[in-house]
Design a protein that fits this description.
Two copies of one chain form a homodimer. The first copy, chain A, is of the alpha/beta class. Helix content of chain A is about 30%, strand content about 15%. The longest helix of chain A has 16 residues.
Chain lengths: ~325, ~325
């Protein structure tokens, strides 16, 4: 099946990558949606590289177990928490797509932050529902957060966190950020590490943006205790993954603190899939703002994430060291 | 009533200015809400300076006609379109409060712009109403406007326009602005003048922010013709005055162009007062976003507009030339 002149067999499991000509010089390339069940079953044991978007449903634990040649998985999504790391052989390298969505997701984070800060959703809906006396809105003006001079906390300082921090500075905000690695220096951003860093950031910030990947150590990193450390009128923006926040604790906190706002583009996972249906009736609360995970798809429509994933896959196929190799120990399972 | 040692009699008609001690060195100071009807009627003919917020209801045309000493009116509002210029003697100087609200209103303009660009209001409300399948939102991602690289048009380049332009640049936008006066130069902003400037800006911009004062020449400057010049998917933000836009034309345009968004903090005047009740059912349209004029009050809660108005009034009382003197010929009437 695979040509003897080519060392690699690549399987592309998503239609997001349309043009596969750039691979054909260095690998035999297959598309899962062009193969029937039998052909797919025969092919999988020979595949050494996968280019995926969502985790393909046909890659069950049993089939994955039979893929003895598998060495490389490139994700088009920036987050790789959907990959079942505990079912992968130890020689498999997994690459995220870090940086590919930073611009669009960073802008979206600011869209959520400003929608909350300027009370756009809440007051727009009140006017729509017939609240048409200016006097009824007098109290709102003092609830509005003027960003200039306030403190922005950025948790996670990768590509997206850096875009968010830069925008925060341009609004005249003081920016505190928690990077994953020590030692980095960034002009105009207070980078902090260590055990006291998170509580300090949460206590000082008027607005916090979550921009960490979902890993073993970031899962539910924001729970009841952390929410209590925050200002009563703070804004918490999430553009990482829903499960970074404990949903039950968030629901209680929003109910008890009507001036606190949670604004998110990402939702909790249930049975391995992100879902807009929440366990707690969060969307009935006026201080919960949620967009249906639309920041990433916006980037996809630019073609940049696909192009970056293709280029990184070619690095692997050509024998170069690929970028964005994930530390597998940080991920317990994809089914969080 | 007035001390012979003090040359000025100042009437303060708003509770927004609480501390009047700074005036007392240079003027007799009165508060309208501390005087009964008779005392007020006796006092008005001696008043030469007024410090106002909204136009006071007791200052009827007849009473104004009797205020022969009136020489100076300081507005705490930045816009002075509420002042009945045609009822004022020719020697009365009117001062706006330009610059006092620029930061808060400029930030609010960006809040409205990003809420529209990132489809926050629309998608949040859809999820709330039970649209909980991600697939139903697939089309939205391509409707989202990524600001970087896009063109922002700023109509009116005073204090607020300059804040908006600066924020636009920090989002990586190309910024075109129409200042009121020729000859100004601003780094990184394309300033334009003359007859072709407005049509050019409207045609090129992905988002337009209205930041002009409401005057004879800006009233309904955006009508059916101007809306047609804009991109079908453009965002029009209004933080100046509702009446800068023709309401009927806007309603028709929003109905015919569902991807066009109008996002406003300011509403149309009716019988001399701004009102949230519109002639056309604008708030029933999904592509209309309206906040209930909350950007200005936010600035008031900082105390800055009051302080600036007080300082400018003192300039007049001390015989210095006050700032922000309005060109009366630009305003036909306050009852627009």
């Amino acid at each position: 099946m695979a040509s003897s002149l080519k060392r690699h067999n690549l399987l592309v499991t998503t239609d997001l990558v349309r043009d596969i000509s750039s691979f054909q010089r260095v690998a035999e390339v297959y598309r899962s949606n062009e193969l029937d069940e039998g052909a797919l079953a025969n092919l999988l044991p020979q595949i050494d590289a996968l280019l995926i978007f969502n985790w393909p449903e046909f890659l069950t634990e049993e089939r994955l177990g039979g893929m003895k040649q598998l060495r490389f998985i490139q994700s088009i999504l920036v987050g790789v928490n959907h990959i079942p790391f505990d079912k992968l052989g130890s020689r498999v390298i997994v690459c995220s797509n870090a940086g590919a969505y930073s611009l669009e997701v960073g802008e979206h984070a600011f869209g959520l932050l400003l929608s909350a800060a300027k009370r756009v959703v809440e007051t727009n809906n009140s006017v729509r529902m017939g609240k048409t006396d200016f006097k009824e809105f007098r109290g709102v003006a003092t609830d509005i957060l003027v960003l200039r001079g306030k403190t922005l906390g950025v948790i996670g300082y990768g590509g997206i966190g850096a875009v968010v921090a830069r925008l925060g500075k341009s609004f005249g905000m003081r920016v505190i950020a928690l990077p994953r690695k020590r030692g980095r220096v960034e002009k105009g951003v207070e980078l902090r590490w260590g055990t006291g860093a998170l509580p300090g950031l949460l206590a000082e910030a008027d607005a916090v943006v979550l921009a960490v990947p979902l890993t073993r150590s970031t899962e539910e990193m924001i729970g009841a205790r952390e929410l209590l450390m925050m200002k009563k009128s703070a804004i918490l923006v999430n553009i990482s993954r829903g499960d970074v926040v404990n949903q039950g604790a968030l629901f209680e906190h929003l109910k008890l603190n009507p001036k606190f706002t949670y604004a998110t583009d990402v939702w909790w996972f249930k049975e391995g899939r992100e879902t807009l249906i929440t366990e707690y009736p969060l969307t009935s609360l006026p201080n919960f703002i949620g967009t249906p995970h639309i920041s990433g798809p916006t980037a996809l429509s630019s073609g940049r994430p696909q192009k970056m994933a293709v280029l990184n896959t070619i690095r692997y196929l050509e024998g170069l060291r690929p970028e964005n190799v994930v530390r597998r120990s940080e991920y317990l399972t994809g089914q969080s």
